């Protein structure tokens, strides 16, 4: 077998590289600067970032409850921006459900088995910084 054929063959089995993870802060940067981080709110009814004064009731804001909205706001800023659904196979989905029943807050990167499977080509385009719950809340299962 020629060297070129071996290279092509080995490339076919290499897992795909993940896309760069963009945080909510990166995605909404211009709007955050315009509104001001201390005045920003996320109107869940309209699905838009806005000024806190523009929301009718605090309960309509993603960062509610009021007593913790500052920390909720900052936590949201550093989370990955999820603008699409992740495609999972039925087996990948079922495995994540098992992990979620153990702990909703467990991060993908803390699960050794999931990380090994990712290296083998499973869980393509899943950012490892997400919790298992965040992945399950933003996925579609291939049939």
The overall average pLDDT, rounded, is 84
Major β-sheet, in short?
A: 2 strands, antiparallel
The low-pLDDT segments are none
Strand order of the largest sheet: 1-2
Strand content: 5-15%
**Coarse morphology:** elongated
Outline the structure in words.
The chain is built from seven helices and four strands. It has helices at residues 3-13, 24-27, 29-35, 69-78, 90-102, 112-119, 132-137; strands at residues 40-43, 48-51, 86-88, 139-141. The strands form two sheets. A two-stranded antiparallel ribbon has the order 1-2. Strand 1 and strand 2 form a beta hairpin. The two termini are 38 Å apart.
Pick out its properties:
4 strands, mainly alpha, two-stranded antiparallel ribbon, about 140 residues, 7 helices
List the helices and strands and how they pair.
Layout lengths: L2 H11 L10 H4 L1 H7 L4 E4 L4 E4 L17 H10 L7 E3 L1 H13 L9 H8 L12 H6 L1 E3 L2
Parallel strand pairs: 3-4
Antiparallel strand pairs: 1-2
């Amino acid at each position: 077998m020629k060297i070129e054929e071996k290279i092509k063959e080995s490339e076919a089995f290499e897992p795909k590289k993940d896309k760069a993870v963009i945080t909510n802060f990166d995605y909404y940067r211009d709007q955050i600067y315009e509104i001001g981080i201390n005045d920003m709110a996320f109107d869940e009814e309209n699905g838009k970032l806005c000024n806190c004064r523009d929301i009718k009731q605090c309960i309509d804001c993603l960062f509610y409850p009021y007593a913790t909205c500052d920390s909720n706001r900052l936590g949201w800023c550093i989370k990955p921006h999820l603008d699409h659904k992740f495609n999972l196979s039925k087996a990948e989905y079922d495995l994540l459900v098992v992990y979620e029943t153990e702990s909703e807050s467990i991060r993908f990167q803390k699960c050794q088995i999931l990380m090994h499977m990712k290296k083998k080509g499973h869980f393509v385009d899943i950012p490892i910084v997400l919790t298992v719950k965040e992945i399950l809340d933003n996925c579609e299962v291939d049939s």
